[in-house]
Amino acid sequence: MKQNQPDPISQPKTRRKDSENEGGKRTRLTQKAIVETAAELFAQRGFGATSLNDIADALGVTKVALYYHVKNKEEILRLVYLTVLNIAEEPLRRIVESDLRPREKLQQAIEHHIAITANASPAVTVFYREQAHLTGPFAREIALREKDYERYFEQIITEGIAAHAFKPDFDSKIVTFGLLGMCHWLSHWYQPSGRYTPQQIATMFISLTENGLLTP
């Protein structure tokens, strides 16, 4: 079985305090650069302990320059969440819409999700730690996107039950909550330097799931 690898989430390099590179050219300030730098600072210090001035200093620009691209710090956090969700959703959608059997879809979906969760990038670290700081429309937007992501797993379970590949007495929504809860918790305890790779952990989770879910 070949693992469906997610697109990599890059880990931004530390930027110079000034806005010029080694060749003396000014660094072009972009929303992408702001999000990457902010994610790194949020991961290191926490969202609450990081100010817009901190982000501007790390980029070598003024706070006024930041306001040209973003309205406030919470909008930057929203963009960090959307970055992770955009990377996570597309490969999962392809798995769900493929011609694979439900069992194979579930295996690849679990492998994909664990690869995302175990990713040590600043953006993923922030994703699993700072959601309480999203409020109002931003919080609702991210919650809806997360529901869309959950529905892909639910669709696989429902399809498997209909095909008599999975036990009929399970509720697909409850199974999805259990699966994703198990995978999400990886973000709290997984260490890249630990005993097992994400692929090995995925294999264990798949075995645990199948032994309780598949029909004889």
TrEMBL record:
The record, for SUPFAM superfamilies, names: Homeodomain-like, Tetracyclin repressor-like, C-terminal domain
Query: Superkingdom, according to UniProt?
Result: Bacteria
Q: What segment(s) does the record annotate as region Disordered? A: 1-28
Q: Does the keyword Repressor apply?
A: yes
Q: Where is the composition biased (Polar residues)?
A: 1-12
Q: Which UniProt keywords apply?
A: DNA-binding, Repressor, Transcription, Transcription regulation
Mind telling me which Pfam families this protein's record contains? Answer: TetR_C_24, TetR_N
KW Endoplasmic reticulum (keyword) present: no
DNA-binding region positions on the chain: 51-70
Q: Which residues form the HTH tetR-type domain?
A: 28-88
**InterPro entries, alphabetized:** Homeodomain-like_sf (IPR009057), HTH-type_TetR-like_transc_reg (IPR050109), HTH_TetR (IPR001647), KstR2_TetR_C (IPR041490), Tet_transcr_reg_TetR-rel_C_sf (IPR036271)
Q: What is this protein called?
A: Transcriptional regulator, TetR family protein
> What is the native source organism of this protein?
Dictyobacter halimunensis
